[in-house]
Design brief:
Structural class: mainly alpha
Largest sheet: 2 strands, antiparallel
Shape: globular
Number of strands: 4
Distance between the termini: 37 Å
Radius of gyration: 18 Å
Oligomer: single chain
Order of helices and strands: HHHEHHEHHEHHEHH
Helix content: 55-70%
Protein backbone atom coordinates (compact mmCIF):
# COMPACT_ATOMS: atom_id res chain seq x y z
CA UNK A 1 0.00 0.00 0.00
CA UNK A 2 2.68 2.50 1.09
CA UNK A 3 4.66 1.86 -2.07
CA UNK A 4 1.83 2.82 -4.38
CA UNK A 5 1.22 6.10 -2.63
CA UNK A 6 4.90 6.92 -2.90
CA UNK A 7 4.74 6.24 -6.61
CA UNK A 8 1.76 8.49 -7.11
CA UNK A 9 3.41 11.14 -5.04
CA UNK A 10 6.56 11.11 -7.10
CA UNK A 11 4.72 11.65 -10.37
CA UNK A 12 3.03 14.68 -8.86
CA UNK A 13 6.21 16.17 -7.41
CA UNK A 14 8.43 15.60 -10.37
CA UNK A 15 6.90 17.69 -13.09
CA UNK A 16 10.05 19.41 -14.27
CA UNK A 17 10.40 22.99 -13.15
CA UNK A 18 9.71 25.35 -16.00
CA UNK A 19 12.18 25.23 -18.83
CA UNK A 20 12.76 28.93 -18.23
CA UNK A 21 14.01 28.27 -14.75
CA UNK A 22 16.37 25.54 -15.96
CA UNK A 23 17.58 27.84 -18.73
CA UNK A 24 18.65 30.29 -16.03
CA UNK A 25 20.14 27.66 -13.73
CA UNK A 26 22.13 25.76 -16.34
CA UNK A 27 24.34 26.54 -19.30
CA UNK A 28 22.17 24.61 -21.75
CA UNK A 29 20.06 26.08 -24.52
CA UNK A 30 16.33 25.51 -24.69
CA UNK A 31 16.83 23.03 -27.53
CA UNK A 32 19.48 21.10 -25.60
CA UNK A 33 17.26 20.94 -22.53
CA UNK A 34 14.40 19.59 -24.63
CA UNK A 35 16.63 16.90 -26.12
CA UNK A 36 18.04 15.98 -22.71
CA UNK A 37 14.56 15.83 -21.25
CA UNK A 38 13.32 13.58 -24.03
CA UNK A 39 16.25 11.20 -23.44
CA UNK A 40 15.70 11.31 -19.70
CA UNK A 41 11.97 10.58 -19.96
CA UNK A 42 12.72 7.79 -22.39
CA UNK A 43 15.00 6.04 -19.90
CA UNK A 44 12.99 7.09 -16.86
CA UNK A 45 9.32 7.49 -17.70
CA UNK A 46 8.50 8.35 -14.07
CA UNK A 47 10.63 11.49 -14.32
CA UNK A 48 13.07 10.34 -11.64
CA UNK A 49 15.88 7.81 -11.54
CA UNK A 50 16.59 5.59 -8.58
CA UNK A 51 20.06 4.23 -7.97
CA UNK A 52 19.44 0.81 -9.53
CA UNK A 53 18.23 2.33 -12.80
CA UNK A 54 21.11 4.78 -12.79
CA UNK A 55 23.61 1.91 -12.42
CA UNK A 56 21.92 0.00 -15.19
CA UNK A 57 22.01 2.92 -17.62
CA UNK A 58 25.60 3.63 -16.68
CA UNK A 59 26.76 0.05 -17.16
CA UNK A 60 25.76 0.27 -20.83
CA UNK A 61 28.46 2.88 -21.39
CA UNK A 62 31.20 0.81 -19.76
CA UNK A 63 30.58 -2.77 -20.84
CA UNK A 64 34.28 -3.56 -20.51
CA UNK A 65 34.43 -3.07 -16.74
CA UNK A 66 32.35 -2.98 -13.58
CA UNK A 67 30.88 0.49 -13.21
CA UNK A 68 28.52 -0.20 -10.31
CA UNK A 69 30.66 1.31 -7.53
CA UNK A 70 31.50 4.43 -9.49
CA UNK A 71 27.87 4.78 -10.56
CA UNK A 72 26.90 4.60 -6.88
CA UNK A 73 29.27 7.46 -6.00
CA UNK A 74 28.13 9.46 -9.00
CA UNK A 75 24.49 8.91 -8.12
CA UNK A 76 25.15 10.27 -4.63
CA UNK A 77 26.75 13.37 -6.12
CA UNK A 78 23.76 13.95 -8.42
CA UNK A 79 21.24 13.23 -5.66
CA UNK A 80 21.52 16.68 -4.13
CA UNK A 81 18.34 16.32 -2.06
CA UNK A 82 19.59 13.03 -0.58
CA UNK A 83 16.23 11.36 -1.19
CA UNK A 84 17.51 8.38 -3.18
CA UNK A 85 16.18 9.86 -6.40
CA UNK A 86 17.70 11.95 -9.14
CA UNK A 87 15.19 14.19 -10.87
CA UNK A 88 15.66 15.76 -14.27
CA UNK A 89 16.58 19.04 -12.53
CA UNK A 90 19.25 17.33 -10.40
CA UNK A 91 20.59 15.64 -13.49
CA UNK A 92 20.87 18.67 -15.79
CA UNK A 93 22.18 20.91 -13.02
CA UNK A 94 25.04 18.46 -12.40
CA UNK A 95 25.61 17.85 -16.08
CA UNK A 96 25.75 21.57 -16.79
CA UNK A 97 28.56 22.00 -14.26
CA UNK A 98 30.49 18.97 -15.49
CA UNK A 99 30.26 19.92 -19.15
CA UNK A 100 30.12 23.70 -19.14
CA UNK A 101 31.02 24.91 -15.68
CA UNK A 102 33.99 27.10 -14.87
CA UNK A 103 37.11 25.38 -13.56
CA UNK A 104 36.12 26.29 -10.00
CA UNK A 105 32.58 24.97 -10.43
CA UNK A 106 33.89 21.72 -11.86
CA UNK A 107 36.39 21.35 -9.05
CA UNK A 108 33.73 22.02 -6.43
CA UNK A 109 31.62 19.32 -8.05
CA UNK A 110 34.55 16.89 -8.14
CA UNK A 111 35.28 17.64 -4.48
CA UNK A 112 31.71 16.81 -3.57
CA UNK A 113 31.97 13.58 -5.57
CA UNK A 114 35.16 12.56 -3.74
CA UNK A 115 33.83 13.57 -0.34
CA UNK A 116 31.88 10.34 0.01
CA UNK A 117 30.37 10.98 3.44
CA UNK A 118 29.82 14.67 2.61
CA UNK A 119 31.54 15.95 5.76
CA UNK A 120 33.49 18.64 3.93
CA UNK A 121 36.81 16.75 3.87
CA UNK A 122 38.35 14.20 1.54
CA UNK A 123 40.23 11.42 3.28
CA UNK A 124 42.80 9.18 1.65
CA UNK A 125 40.34 6.28 1.97
CA UNK A 126 37.64 8.20 0.12
CA UNK A 127 40.01 9.10 -2.68
CA UNK A 128 41.21 5.49 -2.89
CA UNK A 129 37.63 4.23 -3.09
CA UNK A 130 36.84 6.58 -5.96
CA UNK A 131 40.04 5.82 -7.86
CA UNK A 132 39.54 2.08 -7.46
CA UNK A 133 35.99 2.39 -8.73
CA UNK A 134 37.23 4.26 -11.82
CA UNK A 135 39.85 1.59 -12.52
CA UNK A 136 37.19 -1.13 -12.10
CA UNK A 137 34.91 0.66 -14.48
CA UNK A 138 37.49 1.28 -17.19
CA UNK A 139 38.37 -2.40 -17.15
CA UNK A 140 41.75 -3.90 -17.82
CA UNK A 141 41.57 -3.33 -21.57
CA UNK A 142 41.81 0.43 -21.07
CA UNK A 143 44.67 0.36 -18.61
CA UNK A 144 46.44 -2.95 -19.22
CA UNK A 145 49.58 -1.57 -17.61
CA UNK A 146 47.79 -0.70 -14.38
CA UNK A 147 48.51 -3.12 -11.59
CA UNK A 148 46.24 -3.61 -8.61
CA UNK A 149 48.22 -1.19 -6.50
CA UNK A 150 48.01 1.54 -9.13
CA UNK A 151 45.01 3.34 -7.60
CA UNK A 152 46.75 3.43 -4.24
CA UNK A 153 49.97 4.89 -5.70
CA UNK A 154 47.95 7.41 -7.66
CA UNK A 155 46.19 8.50 -4.49
CA UNK A 156 49.35 8.67 -2.37
CA UNK A 157 50.81 10.95 -4.99
CA UNK A 158 47.71 13.17 -5.18
CA UNK A 159 47.31 13.30 -1.47
CA UNK A 160 50.87 14.34 -0.79
CA UNK A 161 50.41 17.29 -3.15
CA UNK A 162 47.01 18.29 -1.85
CA UNK A 163 47.18 17.90 1.90
CA UNK A 164 49.13 21.11 2.46
CA UNK A 165 49.04 21.15 6.26
CA UNK A 166 49.55 17.38 6.50
CA UNK A 167 46.55 16.80 8.76
CA UNK A 168 45.44 13.72 6.85
CA UNK A 169 42.41 15.29 5.15
CA UNK A 170 41.98 17.56 2.15
CA UNK A 171 39.71 20.59 2.54
CA UNK A 172 37.94 22.30 -0.33
CA UNK A 173 40.48 25.15 -0.12
CA UNK A 174 43.44 22.75 -0.38
CA UNK A 175 41.72 20.90 -3.20
CA UNK A 176 41.00 24.03 -5.24
CA UNK A 177 44.46 25.46 -4.67
CA UNK A 178 46.33 22.26 -5.58
CA UNK A 179 44.25 21.55 -8.65
CA UNK A 180 44.44 25.06 -10.02
CA UNK A 181 48.18 25.28 -9.46
CA UNK A 182 49.16 21.89 -10.77
CA UNK A 183 48.76 21.15 -14.46
CA UNK A 184 49.19 17.40 -13.89
CA UNK A 185 46.36 17.22 -11.41
CA UNK A 186 44.15 19.14 -13.80
CA UNK A 187 45.10 16.72 -16.56
CA UNK A 188 44.20 13.71 -14.48
CA UNK A 189 40.98 15.48 -13.59
CA UNK A 190 40.20 15.38 -17.29
CA UNK A 191 39.99 11.67 -16.83
CA UNK A 192 36.49 12.52 -15.73
CA UNK A 193 35.47 14.28 -18.90
CA UNK A 194 35.11 10.89 -20.54
CA UNK A 195 33.79 9.16 -17.45
CA UNK A 196 30.53 11.07 -17.39
Amino acid sequence: QGKLEDGELSTVCYRPEGLDQLLQQTKFTRRELQILYRGFKNECPSGVVDEETFKLIYSQFFPQGDSSTYAHFLFEAFDTHKNGMVSFEDFVTGLSIILRGSVTEKLNWAFNLYDLNKDGFITKEEMTDIMSSIYDMMGTCTYPCMQNDAPKEHVDNFFQKMDKNKDGVVTIEEFLESCQKDENIMQSMHLFDNVI
